[in-house]
Each structure stands twice: as C-alpha cells, then as structure tokens.
C-alpha cells in the first residue's frame, strides 16, 4: 500500500495580541502555506486567534519525559531561587 | 493610493492599536522611530543585565558562606538569562545580536550607569540586591504593560524571576545590621554610597528627559521617570527605618498633603558625568566585556566548525 499521508504540522495560536502563541494541536498538510489555511479552518472557526504559527512536527526537538529526572534535576535543589525562601519581617514583607 | 497616503493610514492604524491598549507584535507595521526607540531601550536594558553581572561576579569568591555564594551565583545566572531574553526581544525588531554588542563595546549604546560604581564590600552585595534590583523592579513592573508584545512578555518573565533578588539583598542587610558594630557600619556605608545612584537609575527629571514624551505617547514607557522614582523613594523609606540605619537623604520628609515623601535633590552633575563615561568603573566594565568577548571567540568558532563538520557528514551519508 502506498503511503499517502501528508506531513504533520504543529499549530500554535495567539488568542489575543500581547499573549504568547500557544500550542493547540496538529494537522496534516502538503506545505507550510496550506498548513496555515488548514489551521485557520480547523482551529479558529470561532475567532480563537489573531495569529497562527505552523511548524513541521519533524522540526521540533523535544526533551524526553523519561529522562526528565536527570535533565531537570540540577535545578530542584536550589530553593534559594524562590522569593519565599527569604523570611522577612512583616513590616517590610511586601518586597 | 500613494505610498505617503499608505504610510499615514498605517500610522493611523498603529496609533489606534496603541490607544486601544493593544500590543504591537513583531510583524506589525510600526513607525521607524518607534522601532528605533524600542531597539535603543531594549538593548540598553539587555546590556545593563549583562554588565550588571560584573560588580557581583567580583564577590563570588569572597562570599562569607557557601550558602551566600550559591545564592549570589544564582542571582548572577538570572542576570545572564535576563540579558538573553532582552537581546532576543530586540532581535525581533530586526537588529542582530552582533550589532548590539558592537554598539555596546564601541560606546554608542549605553547601559545603566549604576554599574559604573564599584562594589567595595560584602555589604554592597546587600545594597545592590535591595536598592539596585529594587529600583529596577519598580521600573520593570511598569514595563510589563509596555506596548511592544515581546518586550512586555519578557518583562513579565523577568519580574517573576527577580523577586528573590531584592529579598536576598535585604536579607544580607538585615544580617549585617544585627551583627557587630563594624558590620552595621559597613551596611550604613553601603547604603550611603548606593542610595543616590539608585535614584538616578530612573533617569533625568521628566522635564529634562529627551525620549520621555514620545515614549509615553507610544506607551513604550507607562509611567514617567519622576513618578517611578517617587514610588521607589516611598517604599524604601520604611525599609531603611526598619534596618535602623540613617537615611542618606537629610531632606526626606513625609508630605501629608501629597501622600508622598518629599526628598532632596539628586546631584545631576554626577549623573551626567557618569553617563559621559567618567564614573569610577566605566572603562573597566567595557574593557572586561571586550576581553571576555574576545577570549570567548574560540568557543563561537568551535561551534561553527562543529556545525559545518556535522553537516558535511550528513551530506556525505545522504
């Protein structure tokens, strides 16, 4: 059987000016231009967005959930990076 | 439609967005001066984060305990990260990282003058976190509402991360004022040296500020230099009192009618002098930046060489 599947694209939508583009899902498309139009038709039928980004799924390089422990571990033992680590007297605590 | 008519229509639409409190995003049309103004401000902000690592970096090997050292290291790491967020935000306006760094190193671009003051004692690590980061936070909280989307989002991220900077600084001061008389004196000396330069961080008076009016109209800036400075003066007064230190401003007085503190005048000659390059550390800061940049050249070259090699291998395999 011939594989006719088109390439997968990830879709990101900015719901409102000033906000980040947020991942909403994916779709198959023959190229970027078409992906944009498909994304408009599929993901913004109710004015969900003012701007769309499409990225070839194959171009996304992601960290591995399985390795998360080793990957993020060095940052977990540094409580002093958080403001709440420093107990200041009530008089000046709104810092 | 002539191109002139088109520009005026675009300008109208642009101002309409600004007035409606909508953000301007990278691919939107914007007046050339808005773009230039933003590049100047954001890159100056980025340079400040990066140059600001120097006075603190100087104390990493002299921190009084492993705990203080880890905290200081973390704070400096944050500054590097914040520099990166800001350079990236500026890059969305069509300027390259190299161009910005060249502008810094050649002296065309500025960074916050406060970093041209030397950090002399450990107490300065306290005063810098508390006052310098404190003043920066007042400014940055206001900039979370700036009209340029990537800058506003960067500010939100930075403010969130930075809340610990000021608190760790105040924590150092608290420890010192509760220590020996010598330690308390060290804290006082540090406060005396950093208080006025921290007030200068907000820039010249509104009446003297070259970029202010346009920046306010375009909502790049949301509050004026003097208003932000007043906020900082007001919040700092009780913090100084709580430390039991003497306020460096002898004219500071609560004004019941205004609901604010009245304060003494800043030494503007000093301000202009430091901006003009005659502060204690101006030359040292830039020389160090250039030296670090040049000595790091081999890393950048190695990255490019490795990349080229990898691509050649891939082509070969294909």
From TrEMBL, chain A:
Q: What is its EC number?
A: 1.14.13.149
Record has Oxidoreductase as a keyword: yes
Q: Which organism is it from?
A: Billgrantia campisalis
Please name the InterPro entries in this protein's record. PaaB, PaaB_sf
Q: What is this protein called?
A: 1,2-phenylacetyl-CoA epoxidase subunit B
GO molecular-function annotation terms? Answer: phenylacetyl-CoA 1,2-epoxidase activity
Q: Which UniProt keywords apply?
A: Oxidoreductase
A Pfam family per the record: PaaB
- Residues annotated as signal peptide: none
From TrEMBL, chain B:
The highest taxon in the source lineage is Bacteria
Which key words tag this protein in UniProt?
Answer: Oxidoreductase
Cytoplasm as a keyword of this entry, yes or no, is: no
Tell me which EC number(s) this protein carries. 1.14.13.149
InterPro entries in UniProt: Aromatic_CoA_ox/epox (IPR052703), Ferritin-like (IPR012347), Ferritin-like_SF (IPR009078), PaaA (IPR011881), PaaA_PaaC (IPR007814)
State whether keyword Oxidoreductase applies.
yes
What is its EC class?
oxidoreductase
Q: Name one GO molecular function term.
A: phenylacetyl-CoA 1,2-epoxidase activity
Name of protein: 1,2-phenylacetyl-CoA epoxidase subunit A
User: From what organism does this protein derive?
Assistant: Billgrantia campisalis
Q: Which gene does this sequence derive from?
A: paaA
């Amino acid at each position: 059987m011939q594989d006719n599947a088109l390439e997968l694209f990830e879709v990101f939508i900015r719901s409102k000016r000033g906000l980040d583009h947020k991942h909403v899902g994916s779709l198959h498309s023959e190229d970027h231009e078409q992906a944009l139009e498909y994304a408009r038709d599929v993901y913004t039928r109710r004015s969900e967005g003012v701007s769309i980004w499409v990225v070839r799924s194959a171009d996304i390089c992601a960290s591995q959930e399985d390795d998360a422990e080793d990957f993020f571990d060095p940052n977990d033992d540094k409580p002093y990076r958080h403001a709440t680590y420093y107990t200041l007297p009530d008089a000046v605590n709104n810092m | 439609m002539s191109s002139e008519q088109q520009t005026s229509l675009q300008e109208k639409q642009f101002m309409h967005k600004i007035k409606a409190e909508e953000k301007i995003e990278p691919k939107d049309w914007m007046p050339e001066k808005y773009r230039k103004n933003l590049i100047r401000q954001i890159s100056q902000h980025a340079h400040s984060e990066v140059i600001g690592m120097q006075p603190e970096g100087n104390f990493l090997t002299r921190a009084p305990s492993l705990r203080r050292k880890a905290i200081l290291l973390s704070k400096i790491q944050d500054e590097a990260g914040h520099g990166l967020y800001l350079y990236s935000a500026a890059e969305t306006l069509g300027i390259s990282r190299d161009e910005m760094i060249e502008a810094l190193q050649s002296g065309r671009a500025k960074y916050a003058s406060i970093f041209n003051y030397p950090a002399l004692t450990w107490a300065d690590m306290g005063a810098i976190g508390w006052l310098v980061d404190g003043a920066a936070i007042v400014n940055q909280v206001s900039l979370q509402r700036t009209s340029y989307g990537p800058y506003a989002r960067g500010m939100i991220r930075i403010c969130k991360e930075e809340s610990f900077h000021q608190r760790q600084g105040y924590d150092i001061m608290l420890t010192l004022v509760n220590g020996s008389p010598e330690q308390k004196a060290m804290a006082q000396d540090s406060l005396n040296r950093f208080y006025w330069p921290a007030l200068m961080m907000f820039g010249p008076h509104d009446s003297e500020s070259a970029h202010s009016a346009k920046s306010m109209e375009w909502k790049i800036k949301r509050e004026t230099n003097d208003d932000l400075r007043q906020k900082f003066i007001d919040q700092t007064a009780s913090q100084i009192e709580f430390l039991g230190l003497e306020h460096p401003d002898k004219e500071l007085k609560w004004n019941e009618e205004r609901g604010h503190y009245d304060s003494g005048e800043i030494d503007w000659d000093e301000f202009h002098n430091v901006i003009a390059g005659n502060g204690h550390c101006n030359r040292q800061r830039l020389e160090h930046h250039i030296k670090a940049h040049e000595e790091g050249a081999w890393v950048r070259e190695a990255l490019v060489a490795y990349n080229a090699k990898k691509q050649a291998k891939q082509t070969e395999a294909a």
